[in-house]
Design goal:
Structural class: alpha/beta
CATH class of the largest domain: Alpha Beta
Strand content: 5-15%
Strand order of the largest sheet: 7-6-5-8-11
CATH topology of the largest domain: Rossmann fold
Number of strands: 11
CATH architecture of the largest domain: 3-Layer(aba) Sandwich
Oligomer: single chain
Number of helices: 12
Largest sheet: 5 strands, parallel
Radius of gyration: 20 Å
Bound molecules: phosphoric acid mono(formamide)ester
Length: 356
Amino acid sequence: MENSEILLRDSLKAVNLFGKDLICTRDWKMEEIKAVLELAKDMKKNRFSSRYTGVLKNRTFFMFFYNPSVRTRQSFECAATELGGHAQYLEPGGMRLKTKKSAGETIEDAARIMSRYACGIGIRILENKLSCYGEGENLLREYARWADIPVVSMAHDKYHPCQGLADIMGLQEHLGESLKGKKLLLKWGHGALARSWCSVQEALLLYSRFGMSITLAYPEGYDLDPDVVEYARQRCKENEQKFEITHNPVHGYKNADVVYVRNWMSPNAYRDGEFRKEEEIEKALRYADWICDTDKMKSTNNALFIHPMPIDRGHEVADEVASGPRSIIYDVGENRLHVQKAIMALTMSDLIPDGR
Ligand code: CP
């Protein structure tokens, strides 16, 4: 048996994730996260192996998309197909669910009946579909409360666990298994898309747990959730790594091993129950010096460039960096498929072949 197979077998034996929700990786132990990553790597290497193609045979995964998606919808649909199952795309607007403004079915009733049909429920809800920060997380947790099947975040206002796991898998592929001590610049990008906090907050949670040294850079007025920042600061401290915040657009590049760029909204994006997208875009476009370009990248340690996508090219990052030789955006995008297959196999099937 190869070393990688022994590692995979041992990491799978150490955990039992069957039936577990994935709303935030904070809810999962490190050995559980590592088991997902080990399995995802094996699934990437043996993509259509008969070990995996029947794991969700005859099972259906429900996906509610309140917001648009390219990668998440496509990768979850492919994941279900490759595991022998089916992913059903659901428009929440077509489900007569109860909302603050209209009568309809409660989450309790919807979640309990869906549990009689499917093997799991994925939900995306963020940005303009919410009236305040935290509402999306509450909705996912309410589904998880009533569903007897796993609920998986496909990106909500606070976190994007599948994206964070795909990032870590990509970094390990390029930098080696141990990320401890690697220097990360996680920076705000000038941009016209008014993006959610979910991917960067998830990155802070996971990158700090994996022992990276973190410089978080953003203009004054773009603070992230203080609870998430404090969590990351504590994990860096436990791992004896630096955690710093800067408001300087060029600080943090020096000797960085990884540069992660993403636009995010200011804490004022929700006011009086409204999502102020146009205001956020107008404000963000004033910070043209926050673009990540080849000049700034020159002072790094030949850093990898990472971004969860979609990219606002020419605003967040210059084309030469996004499409340059150190960009791993497509590897990470591909890894969404493999980590989601691993998550689905471990949480939604009792057929994963580890002898359990
Ligand atoms: N990164 C990500 O979740 O992409 P989509 O919004 O296209 O799904």
